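Help wanted!
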Amino acid sequence: MFPKRVLLVEDDPDTREITTLLLQHAGYSVIVAQGAASGVVESAAHEDIGVILTDMYLGHGESGVALIRSLRESGSRTPIVLTSAHEEACIAARDLEVMFLPKPYGRQALLSVMAMARACGA
Amino acid sequence: MSRRFATHAVAGALLFAVAFGAGAQDVAATRSADATFIHHAAADGLAEIQMGNLALQQSSNPAVKELARRIVSDHTKANAELGTVAQARQVDLPTAPDADAREKTATLRGLDGAKFDRAWAAAMVLDHQKAVAMFSAEARASGGDDVQDFATQTLPTLKTHLELARQLQGSLGASTSGGD
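Answered by r_m:
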């Protein structure tokens, strides 16, 4: 089982805040980043991250897909969950071999996908 | 007859007012989009300068330092040019990178050796992918004004940075620690 530490990469402040609260309430320790580059830096700095949860569209041309590719190219095998309200993100998640969490998500869907990612190493 | 003329005159005036109003709205929207681009481009430029200076202090890898020097020099020049554009348009420029970039730099400061080099190179690739996307969109935008000119002229430099950062990332290789 992967550690209960989550790197959340999300540009929307409300989604970031609510997701952080939901995860913390469930016992997760959460590190937040707003963009792809800060996500990759936080991932390098914290070796005990159990799951990375990233939004697909991070604003100003940044994408979760670029972040996932960068992490995999750098050798990271940390389980990743891609989240988005856009249909194409589901296909991207399948191509990148990561899990997908459709938006909007509730507490139960979030915690289920996190538990699955930690258990399976998606 | 005169009544019909009056009706046409009123209709014409209304049409003109609507058309003029829409035109004014378009101009205002373009100016607002330009101001947003100027703000983000300047803040991101400051972030690249800060990240470049950090690599110059913290890395002992000559290839990292070489790219860092180039990034600091090119982004300093680009931000000076952007300053001229902003001044002409009376747009205030940010004096520091945004919060996310400041946090990213602070986290990088805690890394050292090969770990720092790999994280820095990966961040440079992602930052410049973002910059190329943002500047390409501005360069493609209609208008033909000074902001579009700035984006068009700066874009090749950003593409070169991206290519060099990709080469650097490739040469540094993947992490073998397996810890992350």
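OP: Thanks! One thing I noticed: The interface with chain A takes residues 40, 99-101, 103-104, 107-108, 110-111, 115, 118-119, 122-127, 129-134, 137, 169, 174-180 of chain B (CB under 8 Å).
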